[in-house]
Backbone:
């Protein structure tokens, strides 16, 4: 028996606007992470195109994708994925070193309430703190696009809400386009738009005229 | 620009993986150290020898003559191409020692001229002769081994017996010359025994006076101008010497000490280059595999770095630099430790080979090779391993490796076997079947460790085998008495009447030159009775060869060297040194294989025919009742005409002493093999444990006890260890065969003999390594914080 080929994502049409906060909602296996990976230049689709400001990510080679990830995109993962043998500051600097004019790492960490955690290692921090470091790491490059894969998936309710508030703040004050992928339906309330997915297809796109403050979300 | 964060990461990774880091550095440094230590030792020896030869003006050709006036030197000096010539008087005389002790010194006249001195002395101790030392009586400078073995110091008297008179010689010190760096009495013994034989160098005129041969010389040595025709010079000098009883000549390459030294160095070269290279290659293979596996465990971090926008080349360089730091650290430690150790080994070997100790140089070539290998392999292994992962799609490498498909392992098809084993065994076997690489890497590590042990220990067995075969199987006599000049066979009766002599058999030993086609070789021809019970001659297939009534049996090494086959006629020239040399042509009827010596054999009658004599014997082989052994030896020493007594015990002691130098290298190598084995096992278990943390944590969470996990691991360890041994022992035996072939010389044939004891020792040590590795893993399991591991993906 060999490996089974699965089509993770069927042809879909989606436009993402600058400065919006988009939530992609769907159960596991709906293709939402695949979508995020394609948006982030981590994966390429077999057919179709994915265009970021005129750059077709589907046709781009490894070199171009690396440059794209480096300059335009910040990633936040469910399990934070910090480098365990680097401190908070060094984890952020790891990303900061990649661009010519990054934001000051320490200031970003302080802004995220991690001023007293700067020289701590991931193993010495709580999950919420680790996730905030991971967001700081994603934003220190000052990217246009922040992609978050289940950012609250490994966090408790209160901590999760803090992280969501931080993302909202980044979206509103820094004018960064934020895409959040989640299976947690209540999160949809904080989005400008919600994309619902199932089995590799977009089944609905909902515009949210009055996005909710994350502090008020309950799940 | 150095990326600070990456640099920190590198340093922290080294710190966090310090156990593996240190053991990998140890593996590399042991490989490099063995290589450097042995290569540098060999290099030092070769350099010292070359410098010794150059500075002491080593002779190019040697001529022997019965007796010639000193003035003949001027005639020889006039031969075109002769750059320098010295004439000496050389003769063996008995030393007066206590009862039951016998010793001979070779008196060598040393010209005290202002001209070029060939085979100049290198003085270790004491001082050179004074020009006018008549006042002080007879003086001598002894070879350092004889001096030491006989507890003599400068100022002591050495009493020699010449023509029935006892003459005291004042010892002035010790010195060696290239000609006598390995003093052997004659090529029949081939082993030096400093207690009973030494070199006594004397001022030429004193030697002539002592031996009652005023103005006479019997040995001529020459230096040849570069580019001259050696053959022509030789013939010219032969013609000059003919009227004075020319007795033979030989070039530098056939000179005893030189050919012995060259042979020993060749053996050492095989031992010191081949085995360390095997070590180095094993270390490199382990480094390569281990680094690859370590980097594989960093898969997730590589994915994160890619997601952040790091270029593949940056990531590859980062991981390669980890490997590089290991390679570089290991190599530097290895080079320094190797050079340090080689100083000791060099000193030891220089004294073994009686060579003067000049300052050691450092071979840049050897260091360059070590750096190239150590660093190059670090680079290559890091690069290859990182590259494989870096080129996986970043979204792919962010995920943990896809689970191994839960297919059946092949054992499960043998239902009769599978249904009989318990579930713990089943888990172990499934684990092996699904992670074959991990399994085989450990097996390979164990196999290497076992093989290295066998290779470094087999020498001891091989030496033991030679001893057994040469001194018990091939020759069965307890004592051999040799005459100073051949005697009539009737004298045999004198020996049978000695108390304790159970059996006596005659032997005639003749130094001969065997020629075939254009080539020739100097060997000893042993004439023995056709029904000899003291000597066995073995053919190339191990069969016993009967002593033929016609023709001769040639030693295998000689036959190979000269291209002789059974049935070929060969030219024989006897070089007895008494009377003229006899030349004849005789057929080869057999080829003999010997572990020690390069003798040829014939019947007593044939040997006598070659000498144009009959019924001559040169010695008597005896079987002696052990009870009377000592008394018999005393009686033999005192018998007139007996020049030398060789006892089996003495021969074996001597043989062992001569093997000491090889044994030292072997012991050093065994130590290295043990350390390397430990490092390999430690590494394999630490890395394997790291890879399986999550698996073990899961097993704990589902309710397995530590002891049950240890049981699963233990069964895997047994299989790994068992299979590793099954592969390692034959591999070691195979490598030993190769090394034995390279170490064998014209005089000794090393066979790849590995006694069961050696296999047992290798097995025990290997089991110890494997067990130590297993215990490390077990300790890890009991310390496991399973919840923490399962919570954190990284």
Residues:
């Amino acid at each position: 028996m060999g490996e089974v080929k699965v089509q993770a994502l069927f042809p879909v049409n989606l436009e993402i606007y600058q400065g919006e906060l988009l939530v992609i909602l769907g159960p596991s296996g709906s293709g939402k992470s695949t979508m995020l990976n394609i948006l982030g230049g981590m994966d390429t689709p077999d057919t179709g195109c994915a265009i970021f400001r005129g750059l077709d990510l589907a046709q781009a080679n490894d070199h171009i994708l690396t440059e794209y990830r480096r300059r335009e995109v910040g990633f936040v993962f469910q399990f934070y994925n910090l480098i365990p043998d680097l401190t908070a500051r060094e984890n952020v600097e790891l990303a900061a070193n990649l661009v010519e004019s990054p934001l000051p790492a320490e200031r970003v960490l302080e802004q995220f309430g991690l001023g007293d955690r700067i020289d701590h290692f991931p193993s010495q921090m709580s999950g919420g703190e680790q996730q905030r470091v991971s967001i700081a790491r994603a934003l220190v490059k000052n990217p246009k696009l922040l992609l978050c894969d289940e950012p609250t998936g490994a966090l408790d309710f209160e901590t999760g809400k803090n992280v969501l508030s931080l993302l909202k703040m980044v979206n509103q004050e820094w004018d960064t386009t934020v895409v959040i992928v989640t299976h947690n339906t209540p999160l949809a309330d904080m989005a400008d738009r919600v994309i619902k997915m199932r089995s590799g297809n977009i089944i609905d796109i909902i515009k949210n005229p009055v996005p909710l403050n994350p502090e008020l979300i309950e799940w | 620009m150095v990326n600070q964060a990456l640099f920190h990461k590198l340093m922290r990774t080294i710190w966090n993986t310090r156990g593996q880091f240190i053991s990998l550095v140890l593996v590399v440094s042991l490989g490099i150290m063995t290589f450097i230590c042995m290569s540098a030792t060999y290099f030092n020896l070769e350099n010292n020898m070359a410098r010794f030869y150059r500075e002491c003006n080593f002779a190019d050709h040697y001529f022997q003559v019965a007796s010639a006036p000193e003035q003949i030197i001027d005639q020889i000096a006039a031969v075109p191409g002769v750059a320098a010539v010295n004439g000496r008087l050389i003769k063996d005389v008995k030393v007066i020692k206590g009862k039951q002790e016998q010793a001979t010194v070779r008196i060598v006249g040393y010209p005290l001229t202002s001209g070029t001195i060939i085979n100049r002395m290198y003085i270790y101790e004491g001082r050179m002769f004074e020009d006018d030392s008549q006042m002080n009586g007879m003086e001598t400078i002894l070879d350092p081994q004889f001096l030491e073995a006989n507890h003599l110091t400068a100022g002591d008297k050495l009493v020699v017996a010449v023509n029935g008179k006892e003459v005291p010689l004042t010892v002035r010190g010790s010195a060696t010359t290239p000609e006598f760096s390995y003093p052997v009495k004659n090529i029949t013994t081939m082993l030096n025994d400093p207690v009973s034989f030494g070199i006594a160098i004397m001022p030429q005129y004193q030697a002539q006076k002592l031996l009652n041969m005023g103005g006479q010389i019997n040995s001529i040595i020459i230096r040849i101008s570069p580019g001259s025709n050696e053959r022509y010079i030789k013939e010219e000098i032969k013609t000059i010497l003919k009227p004075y009883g020319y007795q033979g000549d030989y070039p530098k390459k056939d000179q005893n000490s030189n050919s012995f030294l060259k042979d020993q160095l060749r053996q050492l070269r095989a031992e010191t280059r081949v085995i360390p290279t095997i070590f180095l290659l094993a270390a490199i293979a382990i480094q390569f595999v281990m680094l690859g596996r370590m980097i594989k465990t960093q898969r997730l971090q590589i994915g994160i770095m890619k997601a952040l926008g790091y270029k593949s080349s940056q990531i590859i360089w980062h991981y390669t630099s980890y490997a590089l730091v290991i390679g570089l650290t290991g190599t530097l430690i290895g080079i320094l430790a190797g050079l340090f150790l080689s100083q000791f080994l060099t000193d030891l070997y220089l004294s073994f080979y009686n060579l003067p100790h000049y300052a050691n140089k450092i071979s840049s070539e050897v260091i360059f090779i070590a750096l190239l290998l150590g660093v190059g392999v670090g680079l290559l292994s890091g690069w290859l391993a990182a590259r494989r992962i870096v080129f996986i799609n970043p979204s792919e490498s962010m995920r943990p490796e896809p689970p191994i498909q839960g297919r059946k392992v092949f054992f499960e098809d043998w239902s009769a076997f599978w249904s009989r084993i318990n579930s713990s065994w089943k888990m172990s076997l499934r684990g092996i079947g699904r992670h074959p690489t991990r399994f085989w890497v450990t097996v390979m590590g164990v196999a290497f460790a076992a093989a290295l042990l066998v290779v470094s220990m087999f020498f001891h067995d091989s030496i033991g085998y030679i001893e057994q075969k040469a001194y018990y199987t091939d020759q069965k006599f307890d004592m051999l008495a040799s005459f100073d000049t051949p005697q009539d066979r009737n004298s045999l009766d004198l020996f049978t009447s000695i108390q304790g002599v159970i059996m006596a058999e005659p032997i005639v030993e003749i130094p001969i030159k065997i020629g075939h086609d254009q080539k020739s070789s100097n060997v000893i021809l042993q004439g023995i009775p056709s029904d000899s019970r003291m000597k066995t001659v073995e053919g190339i297939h191990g069969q016993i060869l009967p002593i033929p009534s016609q023709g001769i049996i040639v030693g295998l090494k000689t036959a190979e060297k000269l291209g002789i086959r059974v049935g070929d006629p060969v030219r024989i020239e006897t070089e007895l040194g008494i009377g003229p040399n006899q030349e004849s042509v005789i057929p080869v009827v057999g080829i003999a294989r010997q572990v020690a010596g390069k003798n040829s054999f014939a019947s007593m009658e044939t040997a006598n025919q070659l000498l144009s004599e009959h019924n001559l014997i040169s010695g008597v082989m005896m079987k002696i009742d052990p009870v009377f052994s000592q008394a018999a030896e005393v009686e033999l020493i005192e018998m007139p005409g007996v020049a030398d007594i060789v006892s089996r015990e003495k021969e074996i002691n001597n043989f062992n002493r001569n093997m000491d130098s090889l044994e030292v290298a072997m012991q050093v190598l065994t130590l290295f093999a043990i350390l390397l084995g430990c490092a390999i096992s430690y590494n394999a278990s630490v890395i394997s444990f790291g890879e399986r943390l999550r698996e073990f944590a899961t097993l704990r969470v589902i309710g397995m006890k530590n002891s049950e996990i240890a049981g699963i691991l233990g069964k895997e360890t047994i299989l790994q260890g068992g299979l590793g041994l099954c592969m390692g022992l034959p591999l070691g035996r195979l490598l030993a065969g190769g090394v034995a072939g390279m170490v064998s010389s014209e005089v000794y044939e090393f066979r790849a003999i590995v006694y069961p004891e050696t296999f047992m020792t290798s097995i025990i040590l290997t089991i110890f390594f494997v067990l130590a590795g297993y215990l490390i893993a077990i300790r890890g399991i009991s310390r496991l914080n399973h919840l923490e591991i399962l919570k954190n993906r990284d």
The CA atoms of residues 462 and 753 of chain B lie 5 Å apart.
